[in-house]
Amino acid sequence: MEKIYFISGIDTGIGKTVATGLMIRSLRAHGTDAITVKLVQTGNEGFSEDIEAHRRIAGGERFYEDQLGLTCPQIFKFPASPRLAAELEGRTVDLKRVEMCINACAEHHALTLVESAGGLAVPLTDDTLSIDFAAERKWPVVLVTCGRLGAINHAILSLELIRARKMKLAGVVHDTLPESNPDIDRDAERSVRAHLARLAFDCPFIRIPAFDGTDYPGVDFSEIFR
């Protein structure tokens, strides 16, 4: 099993944070000492709302690393790309600090899940996309998809980008959004599975069932993290 996995999505607002929380809940339920980190948080002040969601889904307990600020070392107020959110505060994203904090978490836990900021091509700085940061460190990718209108295009573009960066795709997690049309959702899954085969990606495809947002489903992700 790899030490660090990169959890990204095909777009913003497709359930990536919930999926990451369900992953750590599943891993810890199966006895794996796992922790989550948010690469960069925007649209937020104080403690990272995405890390807070991970902890709530996994049972509510915070980690010692949360108290030290290691699980979300860069937080910006404006809800935009990290590059723009940082610029509006007269700052830049400190990628060296981000890497240092992720490595510090990985030193003390068997597995670290790094949730990206938005999708794969979101700019962290003028020179670095989210996927570039992960690719340089050879982190396997877990791609979160969904079945809303437009998802097929975004999913295929994301898979092509992962292939172009020669990255390992550890798994695809399909989030069943309650508002999605069932026919569109099924077609999205069919299209993603077909493109995975076309690109010779041999990885698990796991579906998160629709739920009301509070009664979290028990999904087993162990075949991704093996």
Describe this protein's structure.
It is a single chain. The chain is α/β, with parallel strands linked by helices. The chain has one domain (4-208): Rossmann fold, CATH 3.40.50.300. Helices cover 38% and strands 18% of the residues. Helix 1 (16-29) runs parallel beside helix 2 and helix 7 packs parallel to helix 8. The radius of gyration is 16 Å and the shape is globular. It starts with a strand and ends in an 18-residue tail after the last strand.
Q: Secondary-structure blueprint of this entry?
A:
Layout: E1 4-9, H1 16-29, E2 34-38, E3 41-42, H2 49-58, H3 64-67, E4 75-76, H4 82-87, H5 95-108, E5 111-119, H6 130-136, E6 141-146, H7 151-164, E7 169-175, H8 182-198, E8 205-208
Parallel strand pairs: 1-5, 1-6, 2-5, 3-4, 6-7, 7-8
Helix pairs in contact: 1-2, 7-8
